[in-house]
TrEMBL record:
One of its GO terms (biological process) is L-arginine catabolic process to L-glutamate. It comes from Photobacterium proteolyticum. The active site is at residue 223. This is Succinylglutamate desuccinylase. The gene is astE. The lineage of its organism: Bacteria, Pseudomonadati, Pseudomonadota, Gammaproteobacteria, Vibrionales. Binds 1 zinc ion per subunit. Transforms N(2)-succinylglutamate into succinate and glutamate.
Amino acid sequence: MAFLQQVKDGKFLQATLDLSLAFEGGEWTVSSGAHCQLLMRGVLQVTPADLNGNEKDIVLSSGVHGDETSPIELVQQLAEGVLKGDIIPAHRLLLIIAHPEAINAHTRFIDENMNRLFKGYNEERNIDSITANQLQQAVSLFYAGSTANTSDRWHLDLHCAIRDSEHYTFAVSPYSDKPTRSNRLFAFLQHAEIEAALLSNSPSPTFSWHSAEYFGAQALTMELGKVAQFGENDLERLAVFNAAMLALVTEPELPMLWEGDKLSVYKVTRTLVKQTDTFYFTFPANQANFTYFEQGKLLGGDEGVEYFSLEGGESVVFPNPNVALGQRACLLVKKTDVNFGEQVSVK
C-alpha cells in the first residue's frame, strides 16, 4: 500500500517506519471535518474544521530518542483517532514521530544525541542533524501558520527514561526568558497526575527548549515511565496522562485546578558537565533518577575537581558518565516551593 494511503487509513506509525516506501505528502479532510497535511515523514499537521480565533497551536512530539517507545504509541493512538474521525480536535496540532531511523534501530540515536541539536541550523553531517533541521523547520512553519487572534503555543515533547526513577512520570520545564511557565501549563501537569516537575535554570538545546526559546511556547520535556520495546509498554500506567492529553487536544480550555501538594517541584542547583575522559560518578551508572544524597556526599569528579552534595543535600537526575565531552553528565536538583501566579516561579 502506498505511503500516503497508509497514513490516511490511520497507520501513521507503520508508514513512518517503513523506509522502503518513498515519502508521499498530501492534504485531505477526514470525516470529522478536520484538515490533515502530511508535511514530511512522521510529521502530520491537523487543523480543526471550525476555527474561532481562540484555538491553541499544539505540538506533540515523540521518538526524538528512537528507543523510547511508549510516547510513540500514544502519538500513534491519537493520530489514528484523528485520521479516522473519532477524535475531533479543537486546536491546531502538529503530531510528530521524530526519528524513524533510530526507532527502527532500537537505539536512542544513530550518530549523535538528536535532543542536543535544536539550538538552530546544524551542519548536515549525519541523519540526526538532518532530521533535527527538518523538525525545526516544521515547527517554525507550524507556529507561523497560526490562525488564532492571540498566540497560544504549546509543545509537549514526549520521552521515557532509560533508568528507574523515584517519580514514574515527571516533566522538565526548559529555561527561557520568555513567559513559558504559565499556571495553565502547571495545572495541566496536575490534571495529568504527573508526579514531579523540574525547573531548569540554564538553556539546553533540546526540542522543547527550542519551542520555548524561539517561539514562546508553553513547552515541556515529558518523561513517561521507562524504556521498553514496542508491545511491552504498560500504557495503563499512562492512562491518566493520555486522557489529559486528549482533553488538551479536544476541549476549548481545561479547568484551572491547582493543589500545590500534588506535584513535587524541583529546581536545578547544578549541571555537571563532562570536561575530560576522567569524569566519574561514585554511584552506579544506572542510579535511579531523583536519588537523594545527603549533604557532603562525594558524588563524582573530573580532572582536578571533586563534586560533593551541597548544603541540604541534592538529588541526581539523568546521570550519564558516558556522554560526549562538553555535554551534561547529570543534573543536581532540590525540592522547592513555587509561587502559583500567572507564571509559576520558584519561591
